[in-house]
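Why this split exists: single-chain examples teach little about how molecules sit against one another. For that reason, every record in the complexes split bundles all components of an assembly together and asks for one structure covering all of them. Below is a record exactly as it appears in the raw files.
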Amino acid sequence: MSTFTFATASYESGDWDSAPLVPPNIIDTIARYTSIDVSPTGVVVPLGSPDLTRYPLVFLTGHLPVRLTSAEREQVARYVDRGGMLFVDDHNHDIDGAFHKTATEEIRRSVGELRELPNDHPVYSAFFRFPDGPPNTGHELNGWGDNLLHEHLLAVEREGRIAVLYSNKDYSSEWGYHPDNKRFLAVDNTKFAVNIVVYALTR
Amino acid sequence: MRSRDRARGALEWALRSGVLILLAWVTWRSTAALGPSRERREARSSALRDSLEAWTLDPRAESLHVTLDELPALRERDWLVALRRAGAAVSWSSKGSSALALTIEPENDPAGGVRLALAAPTGSSVVVNDSLGVLDTVVTAGPSASLRVRALLGVASSAIGADSARATLRDSIARRGVLVLGSAGWEAKFVIAALEESGWNVSARLAVAPGIFVRQGGVELDTSVTGVVVALDSTAARDAREITRFVKSGGGLVIAGGAARSSGFGSLVAGKSGARVSAATIAFSDSAPRRALGFFPVAVDDDAVPIESRDGEIAVAARRVGEGRVVQMGYDATWRWRMQGADASPEAHRGWWSHLVASAAYRPAHQLRYDDTTVDPAPLASTFDALGAPTAVERATAAPAAVPALRGWMLLAMLAMLLVEWASRRLRGRT
């Protein structure tokens, strides 16, 4: 059985390392709820490197504008063509910020047009059930950013599978804490990360 | 003096008797040849149809011989058989007709396609056609060859010169689904993706936590729904008893990677799995991509067949269990081939998995109706079967000439004997 290694994409522009606590927190959640053979530490993989294909699920985040190099665009297109899945989260939790505008444009150029993902998509029932679609984040509920509750995630699908999953919900902030602090939460807010990983590993 | 006369009298008597005996023999031979009006007819392939019509209407045509430049069509061969059954003596000879045979079977591949298997003399150039035109030309390296084509229209034929074998599809495959059992992981994801992209209807049950499974479609170990089970790892062994029953009733099983090491599959595997062999190369090449994969070598049992080996170790093997087939595939983490291989690797990975699954899958055939009377998959063999072995050409043509020649010699002998007898009588009085 192949070990699942949580991979974070680094890229030339912007601040790819804006949420350093997300990977260990998600790894902890995966180990906590599932029997998936998960590597205890994550890796950082350059978006323009052929090594990208060693990790069929890659997390990408940031606040700043994203401008991919031609090598990065090529690798992203190749990666998705082969069945890799890119999970992109806007650390600004808004729809008009620099990251959102530039990242969605780069995705459109490299992979294809993002579309709203229906809230009954299998990703919302892959492990835990989220009947109302993507769980809201504390920053959305506090009215920060664009002062909106984003009801849908966006996605590019290939052959009926999610190739790129895009979130405006700022899960990078929501999940960016030390795993030990889960014990202070009434409800574990990282459960949706399990769904994303299980979906990626089974679909 | 008297004794000399007596000797001459005896000689004359003997000569007269000899002439009478020869005359009787020649008369008998002539009568026998004319007797029941048994006349010989001959024809070549080019005029066979016209000759058959003429022979059928001619009551004296009772000894028929066909010299074949090419093998007769089914209709003409049946006609000769009918004449033989009507009482005619039918023989045939051939100047080297090609021993051709052709069969066609549908591929058990969702993308379709058919496989043409042909038999022909080694080294011959065989032209393969369907009703639309030429499909390919195959030069046989041995007594048989095969050809895969995406689609076939009407009747296919394989031809060497004027000889041809003709065949058509007689059945179609009622394809069943694939059930993938294992743990959530990259191998499961990419095996399912490869099979779905190849057109297979895939259901799955993947373990994600103790007692918790991700399910896709129904999980039914029944050959009416599922044609083949893919067991990716030891978590599939919880259903080993049901899988064994499924395989014995005709279902297929692909045991991948280290799943074969589970004791539950002990009665199904093609052989014991050894210690994992590491990849032989780092990069995936187009020519031998699986050298970059690790595998569990198979020590094949006596009733199993090695399918693929690497550096002297068997990586893939197969065996029959009851009515079903088991393919034991030792490679693990084949998803790396698709993700990290060369440009053609996604398609190659997809095709390889689809072929692996197809080779094990249960495939009930549905008979197709066909009414083409020209279908003749093995024309030379069926000519032997219908008309018997060919007659040697020389014998067939030389035999009728022998009797007239002998008859001429007999007449000469009779004439000589009569002359001697006459001369003896004429000269007797002068001495």
